[in-house]
Structures are given as C-alpha cells and as structure tokens.
Amino acid sequence: MFVSVLFSLGIFFSERSLSLALPNVQSDSSRAIFSSVTGILESTKSRTRSLSERGSINYNPDGTPFLWLPQDEYSGTSFYDRWNFFNHPDPTNFLDKKTAFDKALVSIDKDGTAIMKADDFTSLERGKFRDSIRIESIDKYTTGLFVLDLKRAPWGCAVWPAFWTVGSDWPWNGEIDIIEGVHDNEHNQVAWHTAPDCNINTTVGFSGSVTQAGGKAHTDCNAFIKSNAGCSITEWSRASYGPYFDSQGGGVFVMKWDENDISIWSFFRAAVPKDIIAGQPNPSLWGVPSARLHSSQCSINKFFKDHSIIFDITFCGDWAGNSYATSGCPDTCEDRLMNPKNFENATWSINSLKVYRKQVLAKGFTQVVSSAPGAYSKLPTWGVLFVGGFVICSMV
C-alpha cells in the first residue's frame, strides 16, 4: 500500500514512475495525492519555460543545467554582524571592532551603505602607522558567485586596498584577489596565489591582459616563487579602479568560482546587467570575463577551498611601498602617511555583498519512495526539484 512521496531537496519523482508505483491503489486519499502530484508536474513545465525565458538557468560545459541561488547577503544595518576585525601587528595599524566604531572608521549611513575608511583626520609623526580597517568574514566558502555592489573603492598615493578571499594554511588552500591596486592606478589587477602546479591558460578567453614583469608573463600562480607575485591579469577598463570608478558612481564586481573556473567581471554603474539587479544572475549573458583561471591548467577543487572574504585598506607595504618611487607620487611613502588629507579617498562604500550558491538541476534519473515493492524507478522523464521555495521541473 502506498504510504508517502517525499518532497525534499534532491528527491525527484515523475508521473510515469508514480503510475508504475501505484497500479492498484484505490483509496480516495491516494488518488488525491496522485492527482496533486501530476498537477504539479504539469504546472512546473510552464515554470521551467518561464525560468528559461528570464535567462536564470545556467549551463555547465557538459550541458548540465543549474541555478545560482541566494546563500548570504551582507548589507544594511546588519552588515558588520558576521565579520572579525583583524588587529594583529602590521605596518598598517588595523583596529579592533570597538575602536573602529568609536573612531568612526566603520559606520552605516542612513541609506544602509556600509562605510570602511582610513583615518583621515589625525596628523602623525614620521614613522608612525596610520589607523585603518581589515575585516574577515566568519563564514567560509568553497565555490560561489560573489556579487559586490560598491559606491566607492579606496585609492590614492600610498594606499593599497583589496577585496579578496583566502583559505587557511596559506597558500595551500589558495588566495583570490578580486579587487587590488595601488596609488592612483586606473586598472584593477586580479591575482591568484596557490601551491605549485596551477597556471593561467591564456587561450580560454578573457578581456584583460596577463601582467608582465621583467618581460615575462605572470601565468604561474605558485606563491613560492617570484617573491609571491602569483599569477595576475590586469583589467582593460579605466573604470575598474581608482578615481574614474568613483566618479562613475561606482559599480559591481563579480567573482564566479566553481569547478570549471574562477572568473571576474567588473561593471561600472551604467553597465550593470539587469539580471544582477533583479537578483537572478546569469554569467553566461555577460560576455567574456575580465580575468579567468581555468581548470584546464589549474585544478580549482584542489587549489581553492574554505575561504574567508576580506576587505582591507593597507598603506605602503610590499606593493605600494616598493612601487612608490616610480609611481609619480610626491615625497616618500613614509612621508605621505603623516598628512591625513592624503587619505580622504581611502574609503570603501558598500551597497551590498551577495553570495549565491550553485544548485545543479539533476538529470539522468527520478526517484519515488513508497512502501510498495518495486516502487523505486530510474526513468528518463520529467523530474521535479524543490529548491529555495521554488518548484523546478526539467526533462531528465
């Protein structure tokens, strides 16, 4: 006798398999269940067409369909609730959470914008370190679609900001620098730092340029060579970093990280895709990314896992300090730190950071759970998947 059909994530059923499972069921209650299920199957066919028309269904290289579903959001008055404030010894004086709020280096504007800024009001003696902010997410991520909407990003002489992710036991679990630059640069630099045997495949398609140093391309991501330069790609757009990005009203940066590749897109405000604004992101509609690390020459699942998200504003240091003399900035990096007015543009102004998870829509089999012998069936037919409050139907 039929007992139940389980409706849950990852459990699939079909009209045909239910027919096989229920050949002799005569009770009114069982007929009602069967009628409800077949009705759902019919209605979800139109839902699938609707999803496809909106462009929210994505596809893996092997044709497997999937969705990017909301996982986490950092925004509004709760923005700072799930971050640790890094305040360990560093040439930049990073503040703990209480001190950062007390000094108003972090705040939430009335419109819900999260602000992180450098100290732009304290005059320092030469050799003293300036106060700043570095926060690290409590939650850790292995793969995802990360959508950062910014009004402003930090820039200026001696300033070295970054939005990045990193795993524990560095560099064995990898580092991904999504936004990074120094001084008054106009082009964002995307970088990866890994254990040996991970490289950029320059033939897979991206619009940026592989960073050059000493006449050689930085395609080897190995953090143990080249003074930890890693592998990197510089974006072509002048609106991807610095004063021009801010003057355009900011924009959106996206990192797609899955088993296929790690890709980065940046959009100035007027060019943000409608599917991102609607909360139904579909990277396949955005054209080639600015930067891409492809699994053909770097095993993504091997080299990247359990990452925290990090925002920081660093001063001088390995990059901004060592490049200062050739940057066109005045005096020295150490001198620059003394005057607070030099850091009026060293500010993150964040509308939101949204993280989406990849939900594969199964293909290949369906399942029915019943007390009747032989009720389990693997059949090529319509399947139904319940995810995130939606019913997804697809031919499997």
TrEMBL record:
| Keywords from the named record | Hydrolase, Signal
Organism per entry: Crepidotus variabilis
Molecular function terms from GO = hydrolase activity, hydrolyzing O-glycosyl compounds
Give start-end of the signal peptide.
1-21
> Which ranges carry the GH16 domain?
64-328
Give the GO biological process terms.
glucan catabolic process
Q: Does the keyword rRNA processing apply?
A: no
- Which CDD domains is this protein grouped with? GH16_fungal_Lam16A_glucanase
Pfam families recorded for this chain?
GH16_XgeA
Which protein is depicted? Answer: Glycoside hydrolase family 16 protein
